[in-house]
Automatic annotation (TrEMBL):
Family: Belongs to the prenylcysteine oxidase family.
MF terms (GO), sorted A to Z: lyase activity; prenylcysteine oxidase activity
Pfam family, one: Prenylcys_lyase
Gene Ontology biological process terms from the UniProt entry: prenylated protein catabolic process; prenylcysteine catabolic process
The protein, known as: Prenylcysteine lyase-domain-containing protein
Annotated Prenylcysteine lyase domain residues: 137-498
InterPro entries per record: FAD/NAD-bd_sf (IPR036188), Prenylcys_lyase (IPR010795), Prenylcysteine_Oxase1 (IPR017046)
Keyword terms of this UniProt record: FAD, Flavoprotein, Glycoprotein, Lyase, Oxidoreductase, Signal
Signal peptide: 1-18
Cofactor(s) needed: FAD
Length: 512
């Protein structure tokens, strides 16, 4: 039996006393989901409530055993000293909430100089036949010169286009746009509907970006970030993929940002806990019933997960019910091996170094498709090197990550390593084998970011809020955190409005 308990966030206040000097009743808030948006909602609501001198009870329900949602790590060889990102791997310089939270909570960034340590090229774009581009970190300005020589001014124009789109988006962090009750209206207000309403392919052509750069470089980025080719992702998300300056991750796992947010909020987290029913009462409060059958009452409910995956029953049906939208089914494979990839598998000369990060695009002869196409995968990368003390003798292992549209099998692994790998190794690993450890995960990783000009409602009903409408606009850890912050501010503003209304009524009675 899960025992519900509420930890009152008794925050300092000086003005919210009633005429009989009794403290106001604490607001009861339930947050369903402890991913990026739910954790952010808890954290920012606690801050906003503190500023407004409004006491609040915040309870977070999470059906998984951890905080972080799609941002989580797994341990290689089940060793907690060797964590590797399974979900959201990086955030970037313009992700203000993530960057500021990492600093505030004293979280250290992980090192990103692995390619240099391994003496490998940093990145290569593979089209199933050849590498159309290979870069090294030490190439510096020469690398930029090579890009300009091959693609003309397209890299420069793309960078300007990206900065323009991201600049418009960043205005959503502040007044007068923030906070927004309608995401559709906010997107229109900042001037991004024309960007979300067309495909990446259409957007790039309309802005004079050459096909070669679009297909070889930009499409490689949309594939690794959203498993989508340019004809099947909207223009804004395409530009988001090109905002890579200052890419970073937290040492030990990005989930620590969200766990720190929940902890700092003084919310009461209930992990391994599934909410089955939300029932609105006549007094506009909500009863939440857990799978265990236990029920508790809340003044506000924040649904911080895609409704279609929650198995929730909402009774009566809210004024606005989010549409069921298609999500990408992405296979993520993490594994460890003492071997580097076989250059022959990538049509390189034997002994040639294979890039640390392999992104993919379609060959020029292949018709546009809504899948990985002939390369068969979206990306392969080396994320770390750990000592395998379980092998005989102990030896260093490279930790790989593969994004693909289907489960990775033994024939695929045998090909990229140039050596026979058994089905057993592919499923379970073998301590002394080519694959010493392996972990398979299927994600509904993000919505299919098809072009659209309207987005899901933030306010589903009075006191019932929704953060996941942000997903089909921009789906990142940062934007989910922004959506949670936006809802937190709207909740707080509602409380202040109600308090001011009550004060006005009291004054009117006194005047009579």
């Amino acid at each position: 039996m899960v025992r519900l308990h509420h930890l009152t966030v008794l925050l300092p206040f000086t003005t919210a006393l009633s005429r009989d000097d009794e403290a106001p009743t604490a607001k009861r808030v339930a947050i369903i989901g402890a991913g990026a948006s739910g954790s952010s909602a808890a954290y920012h609501l606690a801050l906003y409530a503190n500023e407004a001198a409004i006491p609040a009870n915040i309870t977070v329900f999470e059906r998984n055993s951890y905080i972080g949602g799609r941002t989580t790590t797994v341990n290689v060889w089940e060793n907690p000293s060797f964590p590797v990102e399974l979900g959201g791997s990086i955030f970037v310089e313009v992700n203000h909430i993530m960057v500021e939270a990492a600093k505030r909570f004293g979280l250290s960034p992980a090192s990103h100089n692995l390619a240099a340590q391994l003496e490998l090229p940093d990145l290569g774009v593979w089209n199933g036949q050849e590498f159309v581009l290979v870069t090294r970190q030490e190439d510096g300005w020469w690398d930029k010169a090579k890009l300009l020589w091959k693609y003309g001014a397209a890299p420069l124009w793309t960078n300007r286009l990206m900065k323009s789109a991201v600049g418009k988006f960043l205005t959503m962090y502040d007044e007068p746009v923030f906070p927004w009750k309608s995401l559709s209206e906010a997107v229109e207000k900042v001037g991004l509907l024309e960007t979300t309403g067309v495909t990446g392919e259409q957007f790039l052509k309309a802005n004079g970006i050459g096909d070669l750069f679009a297909q070889e470089i930009i499409q490689a980025s949309t594939r690794v970030n959203y498993a989508s080719n340019l004809g099947y992702i909207h223009g804004l998300e395409t530009m988001v993929c090109m905002a890579t300056k200052g890419a970073m991750q937290i040492k030990g796992g990005n989930w620590q940002i969200f766990a720190s947010m929940v902890n700092a909020s003084s919310a009461t987290p209930h992990l391994n806990t599934t909410v089955s029913t939300i029932s609105k009462q006549q007094d506009s409060t909500y009863h939440l019933t857990l799978q265990s059958g236990e029920t508790s009452t809340f003044d506000e409910v924040i649904l911080a997960a895609p409704l279609q995956y929650t198995d929730l029953t909402i009774s009566p049906a809210p004024k606005h019910t989010p549409d069921e939208i298609p999500y990408m089914k992405l296979y993520t494979t993490l594994f460890a091996s003492p071997h580097l990839l076989d250059p022959v598998a990538f049509n390189l000369a034997p002994g040639s170094p294979v890039p640390q990060y392999i992104l993919t695009t379609l060959p020029p002869t292949e018709s546009p498709v809504d899948n990985a196409g002939s390369p068969g995968f979206y990306s392969i990368s080396i994320h770390n090197v750990f000592p395998n003390s379980h092998s005989t003798p102990p030896r260093l292992n490279y930790v790989y990550k593969i994004f693909s549209p289907a489960r990775i099998d033994s024939s695929f692994l045998s090909k990229i390593f140039g050596r026979e790998i058994s089905d057993s190794e592919t499923e379970q690993g073998a301590v002394n084998g080519t694959i010493s450890w392996i972990h398979h995960k299927i994600w509904h990783s993000y919505p299919r970011e098809y072009p659209r000009v309207t987005f899901e409602e933030v306010v589903l009903d009075e006191g019932l809020w929704y953060t996941s409408g942000m997903e089909s606009f921009i789906s990142t850890m940062e934007t989910s955190a922004l959506s949670g912050k936006n809802v937190a501010r709207l909740v707080r503003d509602g409380w202040i409005g109600a308090r001011e209304s009550e004060k006005g009524g009291d004054l009117w009675v006194e005047e009579l």
